[in-house]
Structure formats: C-alpha cells, structure tokens
Design a protein that fits this description.
InterPro entries: Spo0E-like_sf. There is one protein chain. The radius of gyration is 14 Å and the shape is elongated. The two termini are 22 Å apart. The protein is mainly α. It contains two helices and no strands. The longest helix has 30 residues.
C-alpha cells in the first residue's frame, strides 16, 4: 500500500473510533452524567483523537 493509501486508512480508522466514542459518550452521559470518571476519561480520549485527526489533515 502506498503512503497516501496508508494515511487514508489511518484517517478512516480514527474517524470510526471517533464515531464510536461519541456514541458511547452519549450513552454514558444519559446513564451516569458528565461528572463520572468514565465520561471524563472518554471525553479526553475523544478530544485527543479529534485533534490528531485535524492536525493530520491540515
């Protein structure tokens, strides 16, 4: 696989993970609220992944 194809694959993987984290965050928010440690940890991971994705694409 060429470099561009590898980057696109990595970007797609990040986007899939971002979508899954958002879904799980919504569920955690409904169940435990935004102050739960699980919600906070997952929010931090989501922020990191989104930053990583945007930096890679700019």
């Amino acid at each position: 696989m060429n470099t561009m194809g590898l980057e696109q694959s990595e970007n797609r993987d990040i986007l899939v993970e971002i979508r899954e984290l958002k879904s799980r965050l919504n569920e955690l928010y409904r169940q435990k609220g935004p102050a739960s440690s699980d919600y906070i940890s997952m929010s931090l991971k989501l922020n990191y992944l989104m930053k990583e994705f945007f930096e890679a694409n700019h």
